[in-house]
Amino acid sequence: MNIRPLGRVAYVPTCEAMQGFTARRGADAPDELWICEHPPVFTQGLAGREDHLLAPGDIPVVPTNRGGQVTYHGPGQVVAYPLVDLQRAGYFVKEYVYRVEEAVIRTLAGFGVTGHRVAGAPGIYVRLADPGSHALLPQRPQKRNPGEPLPPPDFTGLGKIAALGIKVSRHCTYHGVALNVAMDLQPFQRINPCGYAGLQTVDLSTIGVAVSWDEAARVLGQKLVATLAP
What we know:
Largest sheet: 7 strands, mixed
CATH class: Alpha Beta
CATH superfamily: Bira Bifunctional Protein, Domain 2
Strand order of the largest sheet: 1-2-6-10-9-8-7
Helix content: 10-25%
CATH architecture: 2-Layer Sandwich
Structural class: alpha+beta
Strand content: 25-35%
Shape: globular
Order of helices and strands: EHEEEEEHHEEEEH
């Protein structure tokens, strides 16, 4: 996988470049991992509802073709876009999502933070009262009987630290994952993050972890390359 550090880049041209790369790539094209940060922008996924945009104000709102609802990107957030040929890698979308989340969990572990999954709510969450706790969440994904619906997501005591939104075209992925490092979190209060009213969003700085954007980006990139390997 080729890693491309892009620095701070505008959201729309980056999305257009990802789409173009995916449309043009042949069967032998190496996978790529684009790592960047964006100027302030709200992005609205395919399932996005206008009522989740509470008060966007002067921050632009950009419709996009990834899955999910509305989220925020801004300085101090590491955004990683894995461009992976799933057919060649040998795993399906559900496992791809699991692997991306696992890369975030391993990244956080390197900084002394325990990341958690919540049933029915993609992304990675941390305990607000004890971010390093390894105790299993009662809200964690658990085995269900065939046909049993997912429980409604329960975010009690949790903050979201990483958001996930993907698109698959021609069995190739684009869009990706955003890890909050040290950013202005106020814009998250202008939306229902990922479609959930009242969901608290945190970053590493908020929970007491002092790490540079460059270091967080380096570690997340390493973990994604490892977990997404065929």
